Every structure is written in structure tokens, then in C-alpha cells.
Amino acid sequence: AAPTQYQAENATISNGLVESNHAGFTGSGFVNYDNEVGSSVEFTVTSPSAGQATLTFRFANGTTANRPMDISVNGSLAADELSFPGTGAWTTWQTRTTTVSLNAGTNTIKTVATTSNGGPNLDRVDVEPPSGPPDTVA
Ligand code: GCU
């Protein structure tokens, strides 16, 4: 199945702001995490089935310092301090991919800054749902 896009500006933001002053984002803007440990964006996503899903975060980091974030799924840590390195400019957007386990139905994916720099600017996450069983040969 094709990935589903979830815009950060439509997610639940804690200690961050929706902004649009750096070109190249999709949707209506991006989230600028407050420059502190614990600033976060939580997405609510649906999956047609349980299993391994691929998350692709689209972000920009105009500094030279990594801005790692903990990625929790349904309240459990799924990726510890996932790196979001510098992209060269706030208008240069790149992707960071990780694989997590989702339940069938509704899931929460929370991204939490782990350094005093806060998170990167986050545009969106694309969720590629778990692949179904292999096709049966007729
Ligand atoms: C700059 C930039 C913001 C960014 C911030 C940061 O202010 O314009 O988009 O979020 O730096 O360092 O987090």
C-alpha cells in the first residue's frame, strides 16, 4: 500500500509552534519544537493491520548539531534518540526513516526532543503500513 502522510502542523504539539517561514515544507507549515528537552509532536495514525510499519520523517535542521528525538509508539519507546542531523539549511528538507511495530487500528506516534536544542523542524511523517501476507499463487 502507499504511505499515508500525516502533517506535523495537524498533530498534537506540546511546546512547539506551527511556522511557515522556511520554504519547502508540505501542507500549511511545519513544527518548530521549542529549544528544550521534552518538546514534542504526537501523531495519531491508523494501520489496517498489525505489524512492522515504516515511518519516514521529513525534517530540516539548519544547524550543525544533531537533534535526536525519542520515538514512542502507543506509549512505549520504539526508537531511542533517533538522529536528525544537520541538513545544511532550514530550507533544506531531508528524510529519516525507522521501522516500528503498529497495532491494527489507531496508534499514537510521539516524537520527543532529547536535547536542550529541541527537535528539528518537522514537516510530516509518512507511514507505510505493514505489508500483508504474500500473494497466493493460483
Ligand atoms: C531558527 C529557525 C527556526 C528553528 C530554530 C531552532 O530560529 O528560524 O525555524 O526552529 O532556529 O534552532 O530550533
Polypeptide structure, described:
- By secondary structure, the chain is mainly beta.
- It has no helices and eleven strands.
- It has strands at 4-7, 12-14, 16-19, 30-33, 40-47, 51-60, 69-73, 76-82, 94-102, 105-113, 121-128.
- The strands form two sheets. Strands 1, 3, 4, 6, 9 and 11 form a six-stranded antiparallel sheet that branches. Strands 2-5-10-7-8 form a five-stranded antiparallel sheet, with no helix packed on it.
- Alpha-D-glucopyranuronic acid binds next to loops.
Shape: globular
Cα radius of gyration in angstroms: 15 Å
Query: Quick one: biggest sheet?
Result: 6 strands, antiparallel
Query: Strand tally, please?
Result: 11
Structural class: mainly beta
H/I helix tally: 0
User: What percentage of residues falls in helices of 4 or more residues?
Assistant: under 10%
Q: Please trace the helix and strand order, writing H or E for each element.
A: EEEEEEEEEEE
| Percentage beta strand | over 45%
Name every ligand kind in the structure. alpha-D-glucopyranuronic acid
Low-confidence segments:
none
Average pLDDT confidence is: 96
